[in-house]
Amino acid sequence: MELSTRALSVLCAIVELYIRSGDAVASRQVARHSGLGLSSATIRNVMAELEDGGYLSRSHPSAGSVPSDRGFRHYVDTIDRSGTLPAAARRELTLCVNSRRREFVEGIDWVAQLVAEATNEAGVAVRPIGDGPILEAISLVLLDHGRVLGVIVTDDGTVEKRILEFDRDRTREELQTLSNILTRLLSGTSLEAVEGRFDRLIGAGNMPEISDMPVDTREIVRQLFSIEESDVEVRVAGTDNLLATADFSEIDRVRSLLAMLEDRSCIAKEFRRVFAHGRTQVLIGEESEATASGSLGIVATLYFRDQRRAGAVGVVGPRRMDYRKIVPVIEFIGDTLSETSRAQ
Fold first, then answer.
1. Is there a single domain that holds both residue 10 and residue 73?
2. Cα(162)–Cα(238) distance, rounded to whole angstroms?
3. Mapping DSSP to helix (H, G, I), strand (E, B) and coil, where does residue 135 land?
4. Burial degree of 132 (CB within 10 A; 0-12, 13-18, 19+)
């Protein structure tokens, strides 16, 4: 459904009213507070169209409307998220980052805390989320008893070996063929991005050779390139910011929130996955495994060292976060961390 200019204006007005209050939005509220110059009757008609298109929902016919995940996504994709922070806020954040520069090498707990204080949401810091090393070649060598030696060669001259274990034996011929195919399709990809690239190629139907292979290729790639939780540093701060809000007054939502924030491997996995699509990412509700159960939102951005991805910072909060304000804060912190990394 392609939204008209009027429908888009009404949707944005509803989302912003909902972000401020957390309550379902009625047509008279939009007419009174949006400045659109439309009557309540006209707005009701537009809202009905938005509900039919899946952008809004309501619990019963006489209730106001609440933005759906689709409505939030359309809003976030439409608004200007590159707002400029006030000079005072920029100075304060810059001073704080610079004063902790020496701690940056040792840990990132303070980064998560800074984000939490600057946004009043739960702050998250993750590292590494790097660009390299870059995969050059894959070799699969038959051992015995369902075991395969996986050899990874990267552009920095590193040779990494892993023992892969399976429930049946493979032949040398099929492993050699698969080695050649995987090298051809995945070389030139950073090790951290290999799993994501493989999944995208499979999903797009661009690997017919692998579809015909009598081996569990997905399992081979997983064992070769999976990143252990212990290899990724994930820090969360400011959980109490969320628990103090009305959005988490229901015990089931509190449980979902705490379970997600405690699952560091899930956070690390989602952060690595989404940054394949660009520097700053917003995840809303059912769009992500990390945000689905608690009807949450995530805003995250990368920071760099020597022009290569080093880590990420972001926030976790309710779906109705003020994205227009939070995105510029997160991006400015990411920029400042990049400057700090370059100066070290």
1. yes
2. 38
3. strand
4. middle
> What is the residue whose two structure tokens read 């909060």?
317
Do 115 and 260 fall within a single domain? yes
Residue 124 in contact with residue 313, Cβ under 8 Å? Answer: yes
The CA distances from residue 128 to 108, 192, 233, 294, 313, in Å, are 11, 9, 7, 26, 11
Q: Domain check: are 119 and 150 in the same one?
A: no
3-state secondary structure of 52: helix
Report cis status (omega within 30 of 0) of the bond before 67: no
- Domain co-membership, 212 together with 262: no
Distance (Å, rounded) from C-alpha 283 to C-alpha 280? Answer: 10
Tens-digit pLDDT profile for residues 235-285: 999 998 888 888 887 777 788 888 888 888 788 878 877 887 788 999 999
Q: Note the pLDDT of residue 300.
A: 94
What is the count of structural domains for the chain? 3
**Residues 208 and 283 occupy one common structural domain:** no
335 and 239 part of one domain: yes
Which residue reads 């290729």 in tokens? 217
Q: Do residue 246 and residue 326 come from a single domain?
A: yes
CA dist., res. 338 & res. 341, Å (int): 5
Give, as one character, the DSSP assignment of residue 169: -
Residue 122's CB: how many other CB atoms inside 10 A?
25
Residue span of the structural domain in which 56 resides: 5-78
Instruction: Assess whether the previous peptide bond of 133 is cis (omega < 30° from 0).
Output: yes
pTM of the model: 0.73
Phi, psi torsion values for 298, nearest 5 degrees: -130, 135
pLDDT in tens, 15-69: 999 999 989 999 999 999 888 889 999 999 999 999 999 999 987 777 789 999 9
Beta strands in 224-295 (DSSP E): 233-237, 280-284
Question: In angstroms, how far apart are the furthest CA atoms of the chain?
Answer: 76
| Same-domain check for residues 309 and 262 | yes
The Cα–Cα gap between 95 and 92 comes to 5
pLDDT band at 314 (very low <50, low <70, confident <90, very high): very high
